[in-house]
Amino acid sequence: MAIQISGNVLLSNHFAEATVWVEDGLITRVQDGIDPNAEHFSDSYIVPGFIDLQLNGAYGDDFTTNGVAVTRVASRLPQSGCTSFLPTIITSPFDSYPKRLQEICEAMNLLNSPRDSSSQSALLGMTSSGANILGVHLEGPYLNPIKTGAHNSEFLREINVEEMICWADPGIVRIVTLAPELPNAPEAIRALNGNGITVSAGHSNATFDEAIKGFENGIKWGTHLFNAMSGLHHRDPGLAGALLSSSTPCGLIVDGVHVHPAMVKLAFEMKGVDGLCLVTDAQAAMGTSKRSSQIGDRNTFANDTSVRLADGTLAGSILKMDQAVRNMIEFSECSLADAVNMASRTPAKVLGLNRKGRIAEGCDADIVILDKELKVQKTFVAGKLVFEN
Would you name the residues annotated as active-site residues? Predict the structure, then answer.
């Protein structure tokens, strides 16, 4: 059944009055002007659905210890305008990965209804009741022990390329975060790229030169800019400086805690819309009133702004994607169009998803209607209304 969504629509880099025609989960036409007979009308903002490339869990569930939980989380994420996400598994005992990946793969098979077997990937489908599960982000265990953050250093491993190829199943894994300065990293990066997996630099103490070499070897993303990486210094720019000064896009946690607003503004001025992806790095405490939760095997404690280990180390966030968009505008003084594109179009580009992150003919009908205060009013996934405030 065809529907129309009409109002002030984000078309590429600007808003314009338009009517979006949707049929069988796809945007079939974008027509100039308002259609007074459209089923859904908004006098505020109609934007592409948000894509979170780093989500450890939410609403009381942790993906690292329970892959089945992705179905419950997927059903609630549209409340925050998130229509697609990568469940993220942090550093774990090595023998736990096969079961966790199988659980998430089975959940995807249950929820997703592939439109066809061409163009995107076998993973890319439409959920019947919530956000798309696009695959898995494996964050660790090939990290630098100096920059573990909340990861358990007991589970870190030296890079073994043969082992890594068996571990990172290209049928389910979309991003692997590793430290590019580790021995055998160049070979691992090239091997993962050869299997169609995006390699990200993170939890790393790389020098500027080591980071640049990693980019040259095929690293295509940076995991949570500034956090758990060699910092920006005027004589030693580190991984942060390499990401800021290169064309390699990176994630940014815009909760006002992980990164100071002044550094958010600096990052935007240097990287621009195409260089930043808004990510939440959210964990089980997000969306709950609970003060205690977990990420992997670590116990965490939340307050109104952050979630930490007992020693004060940040352990993910309680950020939601719609709040990240609002914060980005406040901190960087960017436009709404820019902030939305950093939450939709740029993440889609990182994963090579040409049908997502845009409101255009032929794209998936993952659409969010925001009110004047940029709060989510309606969320559509594949043209189906899955949330209404």
Answer: 281
The phi, psi pair for 350, rounded to 5°, reads -60, -40
Q: Are residues 36 and 154 in the same domain?
A: no
Confidence of residue 112 (pLDDT cuts 50, 70, 90): low
- Residue positions counted in the chain: 389
Residue 73 and residue 285: Cα distance in Å, rounded? 12
Q: Which token pair is 375?
A: 């709060």
Number of domains in the chain: 2
Structure tokens at 333: 């003084």
What band does 109 get if pLDDT is binned at 50, 70 and 90? confident
Closest by CA to 54, choosing from 246, 229, 316, is 316
171 DSSP 8-state letter? T
Query: Per residue in 267-290, pLDDT tens?
Result: 999 999 999 999 999 999 999 998
| Distance, CA of 304 to CA of 289 (rounded, Å) | 9
Q: What is the pLDDT of residue 129?
A: 77
